[in-house]
């Protein structure tokens, strides 16, 4: 068993109330409905949000449309927009502790980890601010004396941004600053479970000088308001992060009006380990990859593909390290694995573990849920003897559960890795350059880590192959993703044409 850190009682913690941001005003939802968030670590209500209806979603879209069609934001210079984004980044830094606490308590994430996420988000806002000023098109002076071609990049328009609960502040940072940098206006819907930090971001953006209507933030359920945001004819693009199932639905909804769609979906990410790898470094990365964010992470390294000759030794070493992992109170500075987002999700994780055991896998470590009072947690878990056809080897568990598979040859490892529907990321471990590159080039995934895992930088594009998504976030093209291309085909001199005399 890992080290357990029982949650301390939350003293003097009231329920924090939030309104929605529509057209620059903080408003209640139609009919005064609210949604409440219960802290998954403590089982008590910590936040209450105004709940949007479909009509509220329409109001938010109308405000964004008006701000785009008539407002100042798309017409400002990129320099002006960039300065506002930089100011927002500094304000996020100033309020880092407040934002981190809110994400920790609403999502059950370790506070020390969330501080790093918010710092990462600040870096992304600054990167987007820099890219804003470099957005440019192309010119063609090579089309003959009579023609000059200019290719413009224009903001695509109104963007619906829909985000999940696992990295509430970081994921919106992978979308919103780039859309704003391009000159778009937005309607943002965070997960109903973790909306608080996105609403704080709304306060920050108003203070930074983002004009009314440019960013609208509504809280509500996916079926009620997300569906309006993905079908409404006044929305030009949808940027979505979440499950592959809802991603598929989002694409189908957006198809009715042929909106551009960007999707960041699930993953079942392998770490492939060859016998010559630095195993000391790998076992640390294995534990980190599987248990970081309680495994509620699209990038989780939830599959180990180990060379058979090292498998027993590696599993023993990972189990030894897992014994020291601290699970429990997200507010305790030592905690590494926090709470599971909802009781229903914990049941789903337990179902995967028991299903794997029934299918013939062995629980080499952990395997049980941990209930501290009304909070819900999952023990770091290692399943060995997993075979490629088992559900736990193919489906996203979204919990701290590591599945161990084995291989004999490099080709077999590549086959196992590629033979599933996901293709988000993968790790390759070997001291041999040829092995790393050969495997890295043959694995169908958007990010390949070599002798490391789950590193990232604002400069590096992120996204998935196959059913892990469509499009890429971050990287130097991230602002361009929120643009349309327009060709100006200009004629110079007297025009000769179809029926005019030559
Ligand atoms: P969902 O895909 O259900 O939710 C993601 C976002 O989409 C939320 O804001 C949600 O709203 C919204 N949404 C739900 N239904 C619709 C709809 N019909 N139209 C538009 N938007 C909608 O993920 P969950 O949060 O429920 O998590 C379930 C599973 O998804 C996890 O177990 C995991 O496998 C995967 N997941 C993957 C993530 C990733 O980063 N790849 C992130 C999170 C989850 P709301 O929930 O508020 O109703």
Your description of this structure?
This protein is of the alpha/beta class. It is globular and about 80 Å long. The chain contains 15 helices and 27 strands. Helix 2 (78-94) packs antiparallel against helix 6 (176-182) and helix 2 packs across helix 7. The chain has a 7-stranded mixed sheet with strand order 17-20-21-15-14-23-24, with helices on both faces. It folds into 2 domains: 13-265 and 468-486, Aldehyde Dehydrogenase, Chain A, domain 1 (3-Layer(aba) Sandwich); 270-450, Aldehyde Dehydrogenase, Chain A, domain 2 (3-Layer(aba) Sandwich), CATH 3.40.309. A hairpin with a 6-residue loop joins strand 7 (138-140) and strand 8. Residues 162-166, 189, 191-192, 221-223, 226-227, 230, 241-243, 246, 249-250, 264-266, 298, 396, 398 line the site of NADPH dihydro-nicotinamide-adenine-dinucleotide phosphate.
